Each structure stands twice: as structure tokens, then as C-alpha cells.
Amino acid sequence: MPFTPIHMGPGILIKAILQGSFSLMIFGWAQIVMDLQPLLVILTGEVHLHGFSHTYIGATLLGIFSALSGKHLSELGLKILGVAKEKPINIVWSVAFLSAFIGSYSHVLLDSMMHVDVEPYYPLNTSNHFYGFLSIESLHKLCLYSGLLGAALYYSINWLVQSKNPAKK
Ligand SMILES: [Zn+2]
């Protein structure tokens, strides 16, 4: 938080590299789940913005939750979007968990660089030595460019695969 969609950039790049072994939908769902606590804090005016959700232990629990709930939600989403028109897409559990954990852990890492109140190692200690590792501007650029690079890679790889076996669409 405060800008959840910016986390999607690195996710698109990971999707381009891992292709079918990674679910961008579950990754995205994990970003939303991770920022539910800060959203609630903003709405209720509480003090501690990021709190337990933005720790590695919190990210582990929320990662498990995102995988368990995201698998079915994504399958439903793909059906509604018409992607799974011919045959229903079944996301295997290993892909669901991998995508959710990459999502929740990368979220803590990126947010700990950006927000001074994030305590990623809580309750072991309250330090955050990643804070300020990159400026907010560089972080935003990194997320944006990795998304653009990922999209270009994703479509080029798919185009190459399809042009090599035109029968297999
Ligand atoms: Zn966040």
C-alpha cells in the first residue's frame, strides 16, 4: 500500500519467465489480501498502518490463505472472462502456493523498502534495514519497467511458441 497495483509489475515479469508454472491472478489476489489490513486502517483511522500483515510471518499466513482461496477464485475468474471456454482451467496446488508466496513475500520486501513503519521481522526484531534501499521514485520505475518488460517478453515467447507449432494454439 498505498498503491497495490504497482506490485503487479514484477508479477508480470515473473509470469513471462515461469509461464504456466505461475498464476498472475493468484499473485494479484495475494496483493489485494496483503493490503486489506492497511486499507482497514485507513478507513478506521487506526495508528499502525501496515502492522502484522506486512511481516514475513504475516505474509506466510496470508500466502496460505491467498493460495487456498485464490485457486478457486481464479478458476472462476478465468471461466467468467471466457479464457477457459473450451475446457475449464485447473490451477494445480503447487502453482497456487508458489504464486501466492511469491506475491506475499515480494509484497513485504517492496513495502519494507518504501514504508518506515513496516517491521518485516516482527516479532523477532523490529528493525527494517531495507527501508530506503531504493528511493520511492526508483521503486515505482522498477515496478513499472519490470511490468512492461514482462509483458513484452510474455507476448514474444508466446508468439515464438505459436509460430513454431501453428497447429497447437
Ligand atoms: Zn502493502
In short:
The protein is built from six helices and no strands.
Topology diagram in text:
Blueprint: H1 8-18, H2 24-34, H3 36-44, H4 56-81, H5 93-114, H6 136-164
Helix pairs in contact: 1-2, 1-6, 2-4, 2-5, 4-5
This protein binds zinc ion.
Zinc ion (ZN) binds next to helix 5.
Outline the structure in words:
This protein is mostly helical and 169 residues long. The chain has one domain (4-164). 64% of the residues lie in helices and 0% in strands. It is built from 6 helices and no strands. Helix 1 runs antiparallel to helix 2 (24-34), helix 2 packs across helix 4 (56-81) and helix 4 crosses helix 5 (93-114). The N and C termini lie far apart (38 Å). 34% of the residues are buried. The model has no long low-confidence stretch (mean pLDDT 90). Residues 1, 34-35, 38, 54, 107, 111 line the site of zinc ion.
Biggest β-sheet strands, sense, barrel: none
Give the N-terminus to C-terminus distance in angstroms: 38 Å
**Number of helical regions:** 6
* Quaternary structure classification: single chain
Please state the structural category: mainly alpha
Q: Mean pLDDT, as a whole number? A: 90
- Could you list the spans in which at least 5 consecutive residues all have pLDDT below 50? none
Count of β-strands: 0
Strand content: under 5%
| Helix-strand topology string | HHHHHH
How many domain units? 1
Q: What would you report as the Rg, rounded to the nearest angstrom?
A: 17 Å
List all distinct small molecules, including ions and cofactors, that are bound in this structure: zinc ion
Instruction: Name the overall outline.
Output: globular
User: How much helical structure, as a percent, in the residues?
Assistant: 55-70%
